[in-house]
Each structure stands twice: as C-alpha cells, then as structure tokens.
Amino acid sequence: MSLVVHSSRYLHYNAGAFVSESEACLIDPGITPAETAALHASVESAALAYVVLTHSDWDHVLGPEHLPATTIVAQAGFGRGLDPDEIRAELSGLESRAEIERDREFEPPRPNLTFESECRLRVGALELSLAHAPGHSANMLTIHEPVSGALWASDVLSDVEIPSVVDDLDRYERTLERVAAQDVRSLVPGHGTRTDDRAEIRRRLDEDRRYLADLRRTISDAVARGSSLAEAVAAAGTIALRRSDGDEEIHRLNSEKIYADLGGDADPSLVGYARARMEVTGR
Q1: How many domains does the chain have?
Q2: What's the distance, CA 19 to chain centroid?
Q3: Per-residue confidence (pLDDT) for residue 282, from 0 to 100
Q4: How many CB atoms lie within 10 A of CB 225?
Q5: Which residues pair with 47 in a beta bridge?
Q6: CATH number of the domain residue 84 falls in
Q7: Could you say which DSSP state residue 93 is in?
Q8: Which of 16, 20, 236, 262 is most deeply packed, by most CB within 10 A?
Q9: Nearest partner of 142 among 34, 24, 28, judged by Cα
C-alpha cells in the first residue's frame, strides 16, 4: 500500500491517493489542471477506481473535470452544499492569479456514489473507511485506512490554520471526539503538513479541542450577559491560537457565527460565514 500526497502551491492544500495492487483512489485531486495531471501521472500505472471528494468547498471539487470518467464518491449532502456561483467566483480569482485560461464554464462534479454516515471502499487489498465528519462543512468526510493507521482528515487538524466552524460547533466537537478514538498513526490534513508523529497528531487534536472549548465558553458567557455581537467578538479576541496570517479573520467569522447560533442578538444569515459568502458572490 502507498499513500501519495501532493501539496499545492496554493492554500497549503493537499491532494492525494491511496494505491494498492494496481488500483488507485484519488482524494480531492488538485486545485490547478497541472496539479491534477501531476497527481494522476504519479499513479498512472494503477487503474483509477474512485475519486473521493471530501466536501463541497470550492477548492476541493476542481480536479474531476481534468480526469477520466470514474466513480466519484462523496457524502450524501454534497449536492446540497454545492454553491456553483461561489465556486466560480473563487475559481475566477485563482485562475487570474495563476494565469490559467479557461475555455468553458466550470461545472461542479456530481458524485455517483454517496453515503450518509459510513462507507467502505475496496481499493486493491485495502479497505478504506469513509465517515461523515461534519462541523467544518455539513458534508465533510474523513478517510481511514486501519492497517496502516492512515487518516485523510480533510479540513480538520491542520497545522497552518485554526479550525473554521462553517457548519456547526457541536458537530465539529463530535467529529474531533470520533477522530480522537481512532488509531491514527499517519495524518494528512486537507491544508497543512502531513505527520507520522503520534505526539504531533495528539498535540493537534488537543489544541483544536481546547480552542473550540474556549470559544464555546467565551461566546456562551457573552450571550448570557446580553453582550452585543461586537462585545462578544472582542471578548473572544483573548483566545490564543494562531497559525497563519488568515487566522484572525477565521477567528472573527467563527465568533460571529457561534454568537448567532448560541442565541446572541444577530441574524445568522447576515454574520459570520454567511456574510463572507455574500461578499464573494454578491448575493
């Protein structure tokens, strides 16, 4: 068995593949056409059995249009989570920066194999265990290979960005609880650095769980005091967890969303990630 990881020049993004006995399962296969082609070429001696898309965020759905037709696998909520306007807006910005010319409008991929809670895929001698892992995204999944202890963690357990609670805080905490109970000896985050150091894996888990617990406690206290949105966000500013220049904005979006979700005086459709999405799409 081999686990192939290709890191993008953008967003600290990882694409990859599980390969066994001349079969390959590609995972979130690339942001740019060149990256998708390079990943496919690296496993070209293996038959393409599956492409797994870990969730419907724009950067995770770009690869399939540059690959041969095959079985695309995703969680059952993938289609509901797709926002073609947002994807095309983000993609247009990326292609402009990367000087990539497009000859047709991007059409999001449509999975032909979906599941609700769990799914197992046979790839050569491997049995990959896919599990619904909401919190960051309502339709996110993780992939665990139990023999090697490899976990493709999608957009959790990054070492370069803090948790982004786009979906739901309760569900994010439960996803981390489930991951903590698994035998994980090799970790690949959707964004960040692969590690085979079990102490580092535990450190990331503990740090992310602590951040979410601090955020819950701080925002809950602010709501209980009747604090305004601005006051709650200011109170959350004392929480210490920073990994990159973008973390300040992610932390603010987390704070706004959780304030609204926990009963604060704010319209959930106008704050946090909902506000950020409107700014991208213009609607």
Answers
A1: 1
A2: 22
A3: 78
A4: 10
A5: 23
A6: 3.60.15.10
A7: H
A8: 16
A9: 28
CB-based contacts of 39, cutoff 8 Å, min separation 6: 4, 6, 15, 16, 17, 26, 29, 30, 63
Q: Can you give the length of the chain in residues?
A: 283
Number of H helices, E strands in the chain: 8, 11
Question: Domain limits at 85?
Answer: 2-281
Amino acid at 140: M
Rounded CA gap, 250 and 81, in Å?
20
Report the C-alpha gap between 144 and 183 in whole angstroms.
Answer: 9
Instruction: Please give the Cα distance from 220 to 238 (Å, whole number).
Output: 15
Q: Quick count: other Cβ atoms within 10 Å of Cβ 270? A: 11
Q: What is the mean pLDDT of each run of 10 residues along the chain (283 residues)?
A: 92 97 97 96 94 98 96 98 93 92 92 98 97 98 97 97 97 98 98 98 97 97 98 94 86 97 96 92 78
**Percentage helix, strand, coil, to 5, in the chain?**
40, 20, 40
Opening angle at CA 191, ends 66 and 74, nearest 5: 55
* 230: three-class secondary structure by DSSP: helix
Specify the amino acid at residue 124: G
> What strands, in cross-sheet order, belong to the sheet with 186-189?
118-123, 126-132, 141-145, 150-154, 186-189
pLDDT at 1: 64
Q: Which tokens go with 155?
A: 């957009």
